[in-house]
């Protein structure tokens, strides 16, 4: 468990909670909205621990009885709502763990905090049961809903809670975190931070997975060699892609896009230190010399077009084959 100081990014949310605690303006209900890995649980834990801390500051002391209980998962007035069914939070879960329990005053501390993770899994009946409690909560109660999709929550619940959307964390902050706290080597930290889309949890998973870096090497192999391939080679490769990478095509296209952004950056600045894939400087330099600006722009447009086509259920193999042909042709004609 960590305090607010350990949270990377999310400065606005952290400051909001600190001010609420500092000036005793804590709301009865909050919604933390953000994709998995963004830090919702960490923020909720820091908030709950700080509220219950016997030191009374805007940062948990980590040494009082309450903080020690929280860190061991045994604080009686910090309640995590559990659900047996993995895909559903039932109305019984809400009634038994929130509605029936919330009427009992705090066991040891001045507030009683309920944290419902994966709140988007609440059924309509569950949400309506919770709504009655949110509308008329006891003064000591605080409810936190953590969700990766706030649109799944009833408007009546959204309107009665303080809604806070987690923002993507800057890549440089993620990279610094990975290098300093997770002891990740520079190039892996840089690549994971760039590819994680502002999601620090996703970046940590990537660094811990050799599969991601093997996947990255396969994408880069194709980026380096597309300009030399004929149509038959591309057709065969795309058929293999359909078997191996169809479910992961979004990440494949993102990596391919990052490669050609590096080519563009090098063409503009000729400074390898600005590159994401610094270890591939020689190939990137060669491609930057072969391609005109219009060619790089055409390639990036082709990648973006495929994203749209796949979402629109256009033939997967045909869309990718045309993209690779456009990339090869951009080299063949110098981007004209």
Quick summary:
This protein is of the alpha/beta class. The protein has helices spanning 11-22, 40-52, 65-71, 91-102, 124-135, 155-158, 171-180, 186-195, 200-208, 210-225, 231-244, 249-269, 281-290, 293-311, 316-332, and strands at 29-33, 78-80, 112-116, 141-147, 162-165.
Order of helices and strands: HEHHEHEHEHEHHHHHHHHH
The CATH class of the largest domain turns out to be Alpha Beta
CATH architecture of the largest domain: 3-Layer(aba) Sandwich
- Strands of the widest sheet, in order across it, are 2-3-4-1-5
How many domains? The number is 3
- Uncertain runs are none
**Count of individual helical segments:** 15
Shape: elongated
On the 0 to 100 scale, the average pLDDT is 92
The fold-level CATH name of the largest domain is: Rossmann fold
> Looking at the chains present, what oligomeric state does this protein adopt?
single chain
- What is the CATH superfamily of the largest domain? P-loop containing nucleotide triphosphate hydrolases
DSSP E strands, number: 5
**Termini separation:** 56 Å
Q: How large a portion of the residues is in β-strands, by DSSP E?
A: 5-15%
Q: What composes the largest sheet?
A: 5 strands, parallel
Helical content stands at 55-70%
Output the structural class: alpha/beta
Supply Rg: 25 Å
